[in-house]
Amino acid sequence: MLLALTLAALIACDDPPVHDGDTLRCGTESVRLFGVDAPEVRWGKRAAQPFADEARQTLFDLTRGRVACRFVNRDRYGRYVGKCWSSHSPDLNAALIRSGFAKEYRRYSKGAYGRFENEARNARRGLWSAAPAP
Question: How far apart are CA 83 and CA 29, in angstroms?
């Protein structure tokens, strides 16, 4: 019984479609990366936020090959919220934040990815490239 529950909490796929810098599709599930807040892509008449394309491309590059996600929760839109890994990274969530093209979504992560955001900020990567030097 416990094994069945554990397996149900995991999903895996190959080369998933990527919606934006913090959302991908694994099979029938739309997966929101836990603790990651990437700039929004263009939607309708709303223009894309700065670095949205770079964030999406970074997630796309990190998810070529095998991807798996462990269930954390469902968001208000019913999306699967997960901690994910791939053939390219043992922690996709941290890799996105470390790239500088996404921030930590502290409201939910409670600081779990803070060191990766600080690393990106101190190196002035991505979103932090125009920030004053620390």
Answer: 14
The string of pLDDT tens digits covering residues 19-46 is 999 999 999 999 999 999 999 998 888 8
Does the active-site annotation cover 40? yes
How confident is the model over 72-86, as a mean pLDDT? 95
pTM of the model: 0.88
State the Cα–Cα distance between residues 80 and 117, nearest whole angstrom.
Answer: 23
Is 121 noted as a catalytic residue in this protein? Answer: no
Give me the catalytic one of 25, 64, 79, 125.
79
Tell me the average pLDDT of the chain: 91
CB 69 within 8 A of CB 84: yes
pLDDT tier at 57, thresholds 50, 70, 90: very high
Catalytic: which of 40, 64, 119, 121?
A: 40
Reply yes or no on whether 104 is catalytic: no
Going through the chain in order, the beta strands assigned E by DSSP cover 10-14, 18-20, 23-26, 29-33, 36-37, 66-74, 80-86, 103-104
CB 69 within 8 A of CB 83: yes
